[in-house]
Amino acid sequence: MTFAATILTLYPEMFPGPLGVSLAGRALERGDWSCETVQIRDFATDKHRTVDDTPAGGGAGMVLKPDVLGPAIESVGSGRPILAMTPRGKPITQARVREIAQGSGVAFLCGRFEGFDERIFDHYPQIEEVSLADIVLSGGETAALAILDACIRLLPGVMGAPDSGVEESYENGLIEYPQYTRPQEWEGRTIPEVLRSGDHAKIAAWRKARSEEDTRLRRPDLWDRYSGDRDQSASGARRKD
After folding, report:
1. What pLDDT does 204 receive?
2. What pTM, to 2 d.p., does this model score?
3. Which of 110, 171, 192, 196 is 20 to 30 A away from residue 184, measured at CA?
4. Residue 77 domain boundaries
5. φ/ψ (deg, to 5) at 82
6. What is residue 161's predicted lDDT score, i.e. its pLDDT?
7. At what angle do helices 200-218 and 220-230 cross, to 10 degrees?
8. What radius of gyration, in Å, describes the C-alpha atoms of the chain?
9. Which residue ranges are tagged as binding site?
10. Are strands 3-9 and 33-39 parallel, antiparallel or unpaired?
């Protein structure tokens, strides 16, 4: 089944963009996924094709109009998640990306200017307000590209090895362990001895320990969640140290 991606945007020329090359590009050529863009401006009804207006209550910038966004959203139909790219949204997670990748596709609503008229979300409660990170971009297109890339790489056959997407950062609640390759020595630094030992049990233990330690030091927010889940018993009660 082809994974169908639809992007509602004022800049359709931005797609597929970088997703037209490398693994995603080859998958697009094979038909593993499809990319359709919808020009939001096509749903404006005035002679100037106006898509935005000044904020109610005053303030800087412009807001995308609901009477233009509504018909654009209706045009994509139902059956797929619709993600609205906005810094007001819930941060996307690898778990949610994996859920989306297992479905038939996804639609992205890309914001510009000061964002969307809030009534859009009241009228279409199925829309997920999603944030890429705690940053503000000039538009939702680059965030949509990033999230779509995360989905595409999980589609069957896109990555070479079946387990390539399993031992990755965030897949098990931790960031990934550090990686090394040849040459064995570089600038006086060598590959850790355990990785050259051939002992798969020791290598697995080292990798798990490094994932845990690096997550604890670099991402204490992830570590708190991971260690909290680990300290829960099957009944949900917390174990004592």
Report:
1. 97
2. 0.88
3. 171
4. 3-152
5. -115, 120
6. 61
7. 120
8. 22
9. 111
10. parallel
